[in-house]
Write a structure and sequence with these properties.
The complex is a heterodimer of chains A (about 230) and B (about 450).
Chain A (H helix, E strand, L loop, with lengths): L3 E6 L8 H9 L7 H5 L8 E6 L10 E6 L8 H5 L5 E3 L5 E3 L9 H5 L6 E2 L26 E2 L5 H13 L12 H5 L5 E5 L6 H6 L4 E2 L11 E4 L9
Parallel strand pairs in A: 1-10
Antiparallel strand pairs in A: 1-8, 2-3, 4-5, 6-7, 9-10
Chain B lengths: L1 H9 L1 H8 L3 H27 L14 H12 L3 H10 L9 H22 L8 H4 L6 H21 L3 H10 L4 H8 L6 H34 L11 H27 L8 H32 L2 H11 L4 H19 L2 H4 L2 H28 L14 H24 L5 H22 L6 H7 L1
Classes of the chains: A alpha+beta (about 230), B mainly alpha (about 450).
């Protein structure tokens, strides 16, 4: 059984936001108007967020821009609190959301320490002609439910179907979320963390590797790489 | 029968609200209905547009609705819990108070549940909590606990109501069929009394742990997450103390209102307000102790993410609300209730109670919002200000609660007639016997003879 994990190398990331755009398009995330964004209601499954380092000195930059997707925790605080089992972690470690069951109580969004779960404040809308470009593989979420990064789970299903049709095992690199595929600076990697030969496994051994808020015991499957003391200061 | 007629005369004032209704009552009801209708308009707006019409945002996903939920469920501890404790401890002064208190519980619970329904993004799917229950979720513990509490406190309100409904059946010219059904064939026989009193005593015992569980699991909705200043072990007892605190204040306000409107001065005396005022004083000190312990531990631990929330409360964005809360929950009640002269008056306890209600609402607000608006990842920090829809629905819920309470007083006696009579006829002797039984057997014979 695979255990899907993502590596984000902050020393390579240029904060170009290509991953953010790729995610929006891939997952049919509706564009937010300026007014809604000002109210703090923009939906984004993957954000590039600023961390201000107040003790920065010398050559260290004071602002660290960090791509922040769902951490797909092995011990997710969100799945426990859902009163209707609308969110759960599957055998391969992906934390999923069942949109047609979610009652929109937003307990999961408040329980998540990473603030990566999104709520649909209104009915999603796309300006003409963007509606014609929607991906048929990802369902559109109705008003009033919670959604989140799925590690592009539909891509796993597609890759697995293809492998099954060709009567072979899934190969390394066949399943890759849109953000990882898009990253122009090669700062992101994705794969099976339980496979010792995978790139993700290799990179996770790096002395530069850390998790966000490891001390909470959520055991995230997003691994960040950075030189210096970055990890300890979040 | 003659005796019963005589005491009917004596307690006639208790039945008067049911017999006569002045135009003032209808004007009052009209105003409350108007507020309620305005709230329904706000609700329809929210149903049409979704939670977009609230002031909520990322990451302040919970706001006024959840604050009101915690506040209303807290008030619900007024009635049933306090009435049960007073009954079990044979506090004789409880007799005119218990029903007025129990009605608060039953009514306010509906509005607590209503607040959660308002908060749902998909209220049409609310029944999923029964179809797909996840018992790992503290919210499901709430659903379970509050349902049991609502059932138990309704039964606990109804049981002592039966003899009074029978009085209404026998003496009221109107709505006879209604009272006949509800009286369940009560004749007031010795056997019926025995069964009723056993049932009330059993419910009183059962209701106490249920009530404690209710506000404990409400607190656990917050405490079971890892969020700063929510993840605290004392949240369970802290919430229960706050609930009883705001509950007693609610009883005092309700008592003062019915006393004034229905001229019940000879039943609800300053001594009743004094005694409840003493309870309120004790709860104020207890609440202060919990709050102090909670904040001091956070301060000394000084974990950065907790300190951000701590400072936002004590000296940042929420400081005006925080210090108002401290004044309203501790300083004002202590000044008014610590002084025997103001505690012994109706106005003294009522002012203290109103102050406590304002303070406790702020306390709920300050628990829910600051922790959410200052999450662990600092980039997400945000400001929340409730929208007109949220305020309107709070006003509508308060108005509807008062309306239903007023309607109750028009259908049933708000002071338990049979329990007052029982107090008059039996308790004086019972209490003096009880006091005698506390004393050692070496009572001087002369005194012994005098009392018997």
């Amino acid at each position: 059984m695979a255990r899907w994990a993502m590596v984000i190398d902050l020393d390579r990331c240029t904060a170009c936001q290509a991953c953010v755009v790729a995610c929006q398009v891939e997952n049919n995330v509706p564009p937010t108007g300026v007014g809604e964004a000002e109210k703090g209601r923009a939906i984004s499954w993957l954000r590039v967020v600023p961390f201000v380092d107040e003790e920065a000195h010398g050559t260290r930059p004071p602002l660290r821009l960090t791509p922040l997707p769902c951490q797909h925790c092995d011990n997710p605080p969100c799945t426990k609190v859902c009163p209707v089992q609308a969110t759960s972690i599957d055998d391969e470690g992906l934390v999923a959301q069942i949109y047609p069951r979610c009652i929109g109580c937003r307990y999961c969004t408040t329980a998540c320490p990473y603030t990566v779960r999104e709520f649909n404040w209104k009915r999603p809308e796309w300006p003409e002609p963007m509606e014609q470009g929607l991906s048929p593989d990802v369902s559109i979420r109705p008003k009033g439910v919670v959604e989140k990064c799925t590690f592009c789970h539909h891509r796993l299903q597609r890759a697995r179907d293809r492998a099954r049709a060709e009567n072979r095992e899934l190969q390394e690199g066949e399943y890759m979320p849109a953000c990882v595929e898009t990253c122009p600076s090669g700062a992101m990697a994705f794969g099976d963390w339980d496979d010792p030969r995978s790139e993700v496994s290799r990179l996770s051994q790096s002395p530069r590797a850390f998790h966000l808020m490891e001390e909470l015991g959520t055991e995230p499957k997003v691994i960040y790489l950075s030189k210096g003391e970055w990890g300890g200061e979040v | 029968m003659e005796k019963s007629e005589a005491s009917m005369q004596q307690d006639a004032v208790l039945l008067r609200p049911i017999e006569q209704t002045s135009w003032k009552f209808w004007v009052f009801i009209g105003i409350l209905l108007a507020i309620w209708l305005w709230g329904m308009f706000a609700w329809l707006t929210q149903l049409r547009h979704g939670l977009e019409v609230t002031g909520l945002n990322v990451p302040v996903y919970w706001g006024l609705y959840i604050t009101n939920f915690v506040f209303f469920i807290g008030i619900s501890h007024a009635g049933t819990l306090i009435s049960a404790i007073l009954r079990l401890s044979h506090a004789e002064w409880r007799r005119p108070i218990t029903r007025a208190a129990e009605v608060i519980t039953v009514l306010v619970l509906f509005f607590g549940v209503g607040c959660v329904l308002l908060d749902l993004g998909r209220p049409d799917r609310a029944l999923n909590v029964i179809k797909h229950p996840n018992f790992m979720s503290p919210l499901l513990w709430d659903v379970t606990s509050i349902s049991i509490y609502l059932t138990a406190s309704t039964v606990y309100l109804y049981l002592p109501l039966i003899p009074d409904i029978a009085i209404l059946r026998d003496h009221m010219p109107k709505r006879r069929w209604f009272y006949r059904i509800l009286a369940l064939g009560w004749k007031g026989t010795e056997r019926q009394h025995r069964i009723l009193e056993n049932a009330i005593a059993t419910m009183a015992v059962l209701v106490i742990p249920i009530a404690v569980s209710v506000h404990t699991v409400v607190s656990w909705v917050f405490a079971m997450t890892v969020q700063p200043m929510w993840h605290s072990t004392i949240f369970g007892p802290y919430f229960v103390v706050g609930a009883i605190f705001s509950g007693i204040a609610a009883i005092i306000i309700a008592m003062a209102a019915i006393r004034k409107v229905y001229h019940l001065e000879s039943y609800l005396k300053p001594i009743h307000f004094n005694n409840l005022g003493l309870l309120l004083l004790v709860m104020s000190l207890l609440w202060f102790y919990f709050t102090f312990a909670e904040f001091l531990t956070t301060y000394y631990g000084s974990e950065p993410s907790h300190m951000v929330v701590f400072l936002s409360k004590t000296e940042g964005e929420f400081a005006p609300y925080f210090w108002t809360m401290v004044v309203a929950c501790v300083v004002i009640p202590l000044a008014l209730l610590g002084n025997g002269r103001t505690r012994g008056t109706v106005w003294g306890t009522v002012v203290a109670s109103v102050s406590v209600e304002i303070g406790m609402w702020l306390e709920r607000f300050l628990i829910v919002i600051p922790s959410l608006s200052r999450p662990r990842l600092p980039f997400a920090a945000a400001h929340y200000s409730p929208s007109w829809v949220e305020w309107s629905l709070l006003a509508a819920f308060v108005a509807m609660f008062i309306l239903l309470y007023a309607v109750f007083t028009k259908l049933f006696p708000i002071i338990s007639i049979w329990e007052i009579r029982e107090g008059r006829e039996r308790s004086v002797l019972e209490v003096s016997r009880r006091v005698q039984s506390y004393l050692d057997s070496a009572v001087p014979p002369a005194l012994d003879q005098k009392s018997s």
